[in-house]
Structures are given as C-alpha cells and as structure tokens.
Amino acid sequence: MNISKFKIISKLRDSKIFKMLISNIDILLFSILIFIKIMNYAKQISPEYLYIGVTHPVFASILVIVSFSVLFKVNKRIRYLYLLDLIISLILMADLMYYRYFKDVITLAAVKNAKLLGGVSSSVGSLFNVKDLFYLLDIVILIPFIKRYKKRESSRKKKFLPKFAVFIVMFLIGISIDVKSVYAVAKEQPTLLSSMSNRIYLTKMIGNLNFHAIDAYNYISTKFKNSKKISADDEKEIKNFLDQNNAVTTTNLKGEGEGKNLIVIQVEALQQFVINQKINGKEITPNLNKWINKSLYFDNYFYQVAGGNTSDAEFMSNNSLYPAQSGAAYYSYSGNQYDSLAKQLNDKNYYTAALHGNNEGFWNRNVMYKAEKFDDFYGEHSFNIDETVGLGLSDKSFLDQSVEKMKNFKQPYYSFLVTLSSHYPYDDVKNYGDFDVGEYEGTLLGNYLKSIHYTDQQLGVFLDKLDKEGITQNSIIALYGDHFAIPKDNTDQLLKFENVNDTSDLQWYEYQKVPLVIHFPEDSHKGINHTYGGQMDLYPTLANLFNLPKQYMMGKDLFNSDSGKVIFRNGSFTNGKIFYVSWTNTYYDIKSGKQVEETDELKKLRDEYNKELEYSDDILNHNLIKVFENGN
Ligand code: GP9
Ligand code: MN
C-alpha cells in the first residue's frame, strides 16, 4: 500500500505538468497573491460591489504584466516579479489610505500635488491601519524561499522562441480582455476615461491596475503636451490679448458689492427652460421664480462646460478660463497657479469657503480648491450625512447645514456652494416629494422636473433663511445652473414638452441656456438683462462688483460689455446676433432662425474665437499665469 502510494507520488513528480508547475511557481504565486490583494482592496473600497464583474479586468491586467516576465531568464524574472509585487502592494496601501480620507482612488496628479492635500499629507500616520501590513506580508515571508528557488531553477535554460510564443499568447489574451472592459466603460460614459470624474466607479469597472495605467497615460500625455516650449512671441501675444480683454472701459455697478459677502450657488443640472414654466398649471420652480423677480436675471446665459462637466462650470466661474481641450482641467491642471475669485477676495481679507455634500475627491475638488486658494473646503467629512437624495447628502440637509456654518464664518466671506440632489438620472423619485408631472410621469423629463422642483423647494427655504438671518442685507448672491439636464439623445422629449417643432441645432442651443441670477441687497437693480453671456463671464462680472483686479480673465464683464460673445469648447460660438454651430459648420441668424452664408467678417470672427481657445489652452499647458505673475 505504502509502496504504491510512493510510486504515484514519484510518478506525479516526474510528470510534465508537475515539472512545468514547479518551474513556473513564481509566476503562479505572484499572480495569485496580486489577485488576492487587488480583490481585497476592491472589497474594502466598495463592499456592496459584485466582485464577479471586476475579476475579469483584474485577472487580465495581471496576465499582461506577468506576460513580460516570461521573456526573462529565471533570476531576472524572479527579481521583476518580486519588485512588481512590492510596487503594486505599496500602491494598494496608498490607495487604501487615500480612500480612508477621501473615499477616492489616488492619482499621479494627486501625489504630485500632495502639498495641496493639506489634511491628508500631515495625517498619513492616522490613516494607516496595522491590517494594511497584510499587503507586505508575502514580500517578507517569501525572501528565503526565493533564494532557494533561484538556486534550484537558475540552471534551467529555455529557448527564446517558445518563451516568446507564450508571451504573445498571454499578452494578447490579457490585453483583449482589458480592452473589452475599458471599451465598455467608454461606451457607457464617453468622457469618464479622460475626465476621471468618478474614479471609484472607474476602478470598480476596470480594476485597480488598469485604473492606474490609464491615470499614468493621462498624466504623461498632459505632461508631454506641456513640454513643448512656448515661444516668447506667443507668450507676449497672449499677454497682449489678456491686457486688452481685461481693460476697463465703462464702470456700471463698479464696486457695488465691495465689503459685502459673496454667496455663489451652483445648482446641479438647472436649465433655463424650467424657469417661469408650468406643468399641469403648477410652477416647476416657484421659489426661484419669486427670487428672480427680486433680482437681476440674465436670460441669455449659456453653460460652456466640456469634458469636466460640473467641475468645468466651477472652473470657468472661478477662473474665467476655458475648460481643458480634453478631460477635466480640475484633474489635469490642478498643479497650476490660478488668479481665482477666491484668491483675489482672500487678498481683500475675505474668508473663502467651498461647500459641497459629496466626497472630497470627486472631480479632484480636494486638490483643486486648494489651487484656487479657498481657505476651506467643507465636503462630505464636514457634514452630518443625515439624509441622502440621489448621489449623496440631500440638498435640504446640505443647505440647512451650510447656513449654520455660514453664520459662523468671519465676515466678509465668499461662500461657494455646489448642490447635488438634482443629478442625472433623476431616479430617486420617492425622495423628491410629491409633484404631479402628468403625462411625463415615469419619463426622464418627468423625473427631472420632479428633482428640480425638489431642489427649488430647498433653495427657497435656504434663501428665506438667509433673509431671516439678515445675511441677504449684506451679501451679493449669485445663482446659476452648471450644465444641461436633458442629454442630447433625449432632446425630443424636451421639444415635445416645450411644444416646439424646430429640431435645428440653433434651437438645440436655445435649450443650452442656464439661468444666472444676481441678487443685490434691498432687491436693487432687479430686472431682466438680455446680454448674451456664459459661465466664463461670471468672474469678470463679480470682479467689477467687488472691485477686484482683472488680469487673466478670458471672459467679459456682463455689466460693462456690449459684446455678446460666447465661445463653446467645441468651437461653436455666438456674438449675440449670429450663432455658429461647429459640427455642421453652419451660421444662423438668431432673430430669424435662418441659416446664413459665411462672410469674410464671420470667417474672421471664427478664426479670432478659435485663437482665444488656443490662448486658453496655452495658459493651461504652460502654466502661464505663474509665468506672468513671476515676470510682474
Ligand atoms: C458630484 C457632482 C456631479 O460631486 O458635482 O458632477 P457631474 O456628474 O454633474 O459632472
Ligand atoms: Mn453637475
């Protein structure tokens, strides 16, 4: 009996499979260990997640990195795998610690700008958990085994060609599974890979290793774009443009807000078409309508966001620079120097704070608000998450807690509030309260109307409170929508609701307006202003009201400009009379709605406006505000 058992074992030991297993045990062990580590990390950042989904891309990314090891000689291969194990383990540990604070995944830009992270970098110790050492356990335990294994296997020589064939097969299998999962994300959310707005979600979809690979690609390609030197002449040309653009010609309402608080409210997905509009005889936004009657209302104001969506709206409104050519400026250019609204108000001894009830890392706000020189950022950690609607803390609770915080702010202050509840896809219907949308019940449009009605209600309570607390008396309050609510694919629902048959691109742009409402103490200056403008123009307009220096702004002061210029990131533009739609290369006369032929004058305008986008890109790519400031 014992003898036959011995025979089986020795047969097994002599079998090809066993020998192959032994001679590749390092690769196997590495793959299993890394797989366990990544899945353990995935479990910690998103316990509710169905692990099966992420296993494919995780497995595939391991296959890709392991495939290279096959090409090496055993000694080098072991060294390569050991080093990779160490690097990946350290990245996972950094990711975990970052997650504990920001509920997000770390990026190269965040590491580079670590000094901007304030709180976290100084409290790395407190974010460390002894259990994290689990990630390094194998690194220590394996050392003696590796030594013995190296000795045993180093004499084994393998021919290059079969090794290369194995490499190709492994690599191709891995990379095709990876491409498939990355493609699925790109199809579902086309801008997510470059904008990296929701990094946790992305990591859930493609796994930690692929996330970091894409992040590294984004980081390096931006660096590469920036590395091309800009000529002194081009620099001068940009400076001349800025000087001209920021020259003050007229002084309407100049200094009107000086010394007063500034409260800016960016409302999630608030489009203009809901303002003063009814459904089934009921106003959709009764509170905003009431507020608009007491304020100065800009009714030809456009959102100009690109790949950075909400963050682009913030970026433009606070810096008057165009969004990045691709991706999100909040992510790619968070290491730049800015001459932001908060910075200028800081220089005037204002206390400046950004408030938003979502996790701090979303849209890289934790890094970018520092670059924009906000004194404080009150994110998810600073609020009691006592009620959630949609993506996170409800607007009701957020605005409620925000007033309480603002009551204690040192005056004068600049509060920048970003709401959250009325976020696409507007499906948290049970929490929006009762609002009868009739035939639109159950549709995207109907759900949006419910959600924006809910947010309007909360804004009403908030504005009433500001009134009651006497804050309105001593503050300028600006409110605007961040971007569209109804995606282009669903325009037909919107046109039907508006009873409009015109499906032209000009008409579509008509629906890309968002309200801008500026309230002054004592309801002064109330009325409607039809000047064409966009989010690029908020900062110059406020700079005039608060007597702030205007140096690096690309937008215009809506109170002191007769230009109706609005340039969109895709190259479309309007001057208030003509509308150019870039994707069809068509000009429209706004009044008649008819197409018009391109004239030399229009072509010149188009070239000029394209140039302005290039200037803005250069400012971002070459960190020119820093260059100009240092030169001054
Ligand atoms: C999240 C919020 C949403 O914090 O600002 O961003 P969005 O998806 O609308 O760009
Ligand atoms: Mn948004």
UniProtKB/TrEMBL annotation:
<dbReference type="Pfam" id="PF00884">
    <property type="entry name" value="Sulfatase"/>
</dbReference>
<keyword id="KW-0472">Membrane</keyword>
<feature type="transmembrane region" description="Helical">
    <location>
        <begin position="164"/>
        <end position="186"/>
    </location>
</feature>
<comment type="similarity">
    <text>Belongs to the LTA synthase family.</text>
</comment>
<protein>
    <submittedName>
        <fullName>LTA synthase family protein</fullName>
    </submittedName>
</protein>
<feature type="transmembrane region" description="Helical">
    <location>
        <begin position="79"/>
        <end position="99"/>
    </location>
</feature>
<feature type="domain" description="Sulfatase N-terminal">
    <location>
        <begin position="260"/>
        <end position="547"/>
    </location>
</feature>
<dbReference type="InterPro" id="IPR012160">
    <property type="entry name" value="LtaS-like"/>
</dbReference>
<feature type="transmembrane region" description="Helical">
    <location>
        <begin position="50"/>
        <end position="72"/>
    </location>
</feature>
<dbReference type="InterPro" id="IPR000917">
    <property type="entry name" value="Sulfatase_N"/>
</dbReference>
<dbReference type="InterPro" id="IPR050448">
    <property type="entry name" value="OpgB/LTA_synthase_biosynth"/>
</dbReference>
<feature type="transmembrane region" description="Helical">
    <location>
        <begin position="21"/>
        <end position="38"/>
    </location>
</feature>
<keyword id="KW-0812">Transmembrane</keyword>
<feature type="transmembrane region" description="Helical">
    <location>
        <begin position="119"/>
        <end position="143"/>
    </location>
</feature>
<keyword id="KW-1133">Transmembrane helix</keyword>
